[in-house]
Each structure stands twice: as C-alpha cells, then as structure tokens.
Amino acid sequence: MMISKAESRGRADLYRLLSRLYEREADQALLDSLRGLSLPEDNDDLKQGAAALRDYLAAAGPDAVDELAVDYAAVFLAAGSAEGAAALPCESVYTSPRRIFMQEAWEQVCRLYAGKGLGRAEGRADLMEDHLALELAFQGWLVDNGTVREQKSFLESHLLNWLPAFAADVDKYGRTPFYKAVTRITLGFLALERGLLEGLESGELSMARSFSVRNDRLAPILARLKEQYRVFAPKRFPKRGLKGADLIRYGEIDALTDIVYKEKSHLSAKEVFYPVSQTLFRFNGEECTQEEPADGREIILLARPCDINAVRRLDTIFLRNGQPDLYYARMREKLHLFLLECKEGFDNCFCVSMGSNVALDYEAAVRIDDICALVEVKNEAFLPYFQDEVPIDFAPEFVSENRRAARVPEIRREQLAEITVLDYWKQFDDKCIGCGGCNTACPTCSCFDTVDVIYHETSRDGERRRVWSGCMLEDFTRTAGGALARKTPGANMRFKVLHKIFDFKLRFGEEHMCVGCGRCIDRCPKDIDYLDAINGLSDLLAGKEG
Q1: Do residue 140 and residue 263 come from a single domain?
Q2: Cβ–Cβ contacts within 10 Å for residue 241, how many?
Q3: Whole-number pLDDT of residue 406
C-alpha cells in the first residue's frame, strides 16, 4: 500500500491544527473552522473525541469563546488553581522527578530544533520549547521535511512519552468538554501515526518515490532545496575553455536551465567536495587556527554514473587508506549524490568496460528533458520536496554499450618488473608535455601538494594550503635534494596507466581506479589517447604471452 501525497499533506495539516489548539485560546474563526472539520475515526479515542467535539460545537452559544478562554487559562496555565491542579502542557513537567520546567526533555528538544535550524516561531516566544504546541508543530515539520525514522523517533521518544499522563490531567481538570475532546483526538491521532510509521519503516507501507515534475514547477522546488543545500551540476562557463571555447564544469546552479545534460563536462565533479586549492589552517607565528568552511550548508551534487562511482574510489583513498583524511571527510559528510541519468554516453567514454556505467549509490535520480524532469527519490529526507508532484513508475536507465571499448590486461604481479622497462612507454616521451591536464580532468586522481603562503615578505602570518598535483607533471617526483624518481614523460605515463588499471585494484581488492569517463583523452592538448595506451599494452602483453 502506498501513502499518497495528499495523505501526507493531511497529516502535516492535522499536526499544525492540533498545535494551534494548544498554543493559545480558541477564537471564533478557529471554532468556525472546526465545525467543518473531517477527522479520521480509526480508533476509539478518535471516534469518541470527534463525537464529543461535534456535540460541544453544536451546542456552543455566543459566549463559547469566553468560556473556552477561561477553560484554557485554568487547565493549561493553572490560573486560579491550587498548585498541581492543572495540566501544564510541557514535557519536562511530566517526565522530570520534580515535575518542573526546563529539565532533560527540554534540553533534548532544544538540541533537535537547533539541529534542524529551527527556533520558536514568531509569536510563540512565551512558550517553552517542550510545550505541546511546539512539539506538535515540529512533528508536522518532520512530516514535510524529515525521514520516517525521525518522525517515529520523535513521536515515541517525546510526544507519546508524556501525552497519556497529560491527557488524564486534562480530563481531570477541564471545565468544558472541548479540551477533553481535543486531547482525546490528539491521543487517537498519535496512536494512528505510530501504526502508520511502523508500517512505513517495515516496508508494509510505502511513500510514492518516483515523480514527474513539469519544468515550470522545478524552479520553486530548487528554491526550497537551496534554502538548506548548495546545489551543484554540470554548468556552462562561456569562453572559459581552451582557445576561447565554452567550458563545462561542475558549478553551483540557480536555475534548471543552468544544468548541461546533453554534453559531457570537461572537468569532473570532484572539485565540488575536494577543492582545487583548500586552506587547511592559518598561522601567525604564535598559533595555528583551523580553517572552517565558509558555507555550512550541505551539498547536493547532480552527477553522472561515472562521477558517482569515482566518489567511491576517492572515499577509498581518503577514508579507508590508513588514517581518514580530516579535511576530505569534513566535506564528504555534507555531500548528497543525485544521479544525472546517462543513457548513451559520449565520445571517448568507455565506462562499460570499467564497470562504471551503472551507479546505485545515489539518494535521488533525475532524468531531464525539455518538458519535464522524472525523479526517483531513495532518501526519504527529499520526499517532501516532490510529494506534490505526479507519482509515476520511473527508474533511471544506464548506458549499456560505448562507442569505444577498453581491453584491460590481466597483469600478474611478477610481470611488473618486465612491464616497467618496456620500450612501449618511450613513445610518450616526445608526445607528452607534462601539463597535467589529464590529472586535473580525471575524477579519481587524488594527489596534492601542501604549500605555505606567507602574506608579507617579513611576516610570520600566513596559511597552509592543499593544492592539486598530478603524476604527469615533470616535477611531481622531485625530492628535496633535486632527484627525480621518474625522469621522463614515458615513465610518468607508465605509472599512471598501471596505477589506474592494476595497483589500485591490487591494493584494495575491489575495482579498477579508472572509471572510463574519457576526459583525459578529451583534454589532452597533444591528442594522447589514454584508451589506446591501455589497449596497446593489453595487445603487447597478449602477444608476448602468445
């Protein structure tokens, strides 16, 4: 069974209505709206509460607003009552040993709100954060913006943790049937919610997860996403490329029209979360201060399958290759991967050969055309952004055949010494100019230099930066004494090829480092074809073995 977008919207609306009922005294407009209210009656509390509310409203006279104001003050504010003869609507009162305000429950919900960037809404400054009105409002917010797990956790750990005792006091101290009915409805609705969330969590129920979104409706969705996230995708930078051509690279987008989805980006997605130049810390001769990210928002990255698979390779290098890299981890934990569907591939792609044509590690998948976008949502946190759109049956498709193919050689460890000295690599000595363009464009190259920048010639103030580097640069292996471990472009090419199709897989036992995006071929100013280099080595080794 699937929960529709209308049902989810109705749940959030009911939480907000209940929040309003506990927030302050009822006015005439609220009473009038309640007369036409349709409530679920799926359990006894809901049935009896709804019936009692209808009966009260049907019999209510012209003094009902004043009568309810007195009732609200007496029951929820303890006005004119002896100590303890009230139902004070704050969780701390019902969960702390001394039944007083601002105890552990209050601290917990304060942290929860702050973690979501929320505070008390305008006009609610006189309410404690664990007031029932605010807790109900937050649960409604979670229906719109949170995951099933978050909704279920808050419901069970907070709302249901104290509502039964609170309801008993309302029933005891209430002067009219109105708030007794409202509290019974609240209990019944929360019980209904618990069953629904348990079903969603177990998979017996499901939310609509794929949607069709007209292009004109994507703008407000993108605007909502950008309130909490920075959104990056392939983007065109006019006249910023080679010889004045346009450059397509990953950049922060402000509109759907910014996304370039019919062309391959010239550079990879890695610079979004692994910057070309990154300040690690600043120093002034006395102390060092770690640099914090300027923008604390999380990041949504719309990337093709090869780039998503490349992220996993970088994760292996930076997070699972000994001590995790702090600076990479800090950026990586903010990253949300959205798959940008790629069904046909481009010139020089060979992702199928490298097993990188299919990516499953995404939180949402998007197919874009000139009319609409089809979206599959896997992370529940993003469902609220699309719940108002048309549910459909959609799953992304992947390229199944490239125009070119790689013949990756099966290299044995004992062959390495022989492969290292092959004359095959000398052909690159005259071709390669050591510009490092292939390393810059590659989504899995991870090497960097650290550089200390002094702000003034005689100053002790400065900063340490991490700056991309690459194995194809002439001075990459130069030591402090001036020696070079690899002295020729051919030796560098040998190192790069073997690292991408042998060393990485040997060390980590998973997959080759290369994902077959072909950008190194596209970007080489000397037309060196990396795919030909792989296939040529494969043919050479096959001939030697034959």
Answers
A1: no
A2: 16
A3: 96
Q: What are the tokens at 339? A: 């798959």
486 vs 546, higher pLDDT: 486
Residue 479 forms part of a structural domain: no
Q: How many domains, in total, are found in the chain?
A: 2
Helix (H, G, I), strand (E, B) or coil at 129: coil
Token code pair at residue 212: 């069709």
Instruction: For residue 356, count CB atoms less than 10 angstroms from its CB and return exposed for 0-12, middle for 13-18, buried for 19 or more.
Output: buried
Phi/psi at 422 (5° precision): -65, 140
d(C-alpha 262, C-alpha 264), whole Å: 7
pLDDT confidence of residue 81: 64
| Residue labelled with tokens 């001075």 | 475
CA nearest to 408, candidates 515, 311, 293: 515
CA–CA gap between residue 473 and residue 432 (Å, rounded): 10
Which one, of 342, 338, 360, 313, lies nearest residue 401 by Cα?
342
Give the Cα separation of 164 and 95 in Å (integer). Answer: 12
Is pLDDT at 545 greater than 80 in this prediction?
Answer: no
Domain CATH for 127: 1.10.3480.10
Domain that holds residue 255: 210-275+291-391
Q: Does this model's pTM top 0.85?
A: no
Same domain (yes/no): 86, 121: yes
d(CA 450, CA 403): 40
Let me know: does 194 contact 156? Beta carbons within 8 Å. Answer: yes
Is 175 found in the same domain as 31?
yes
Which of 96, 409, 112, 364 minimizes the C-alpha distance to 231? 364
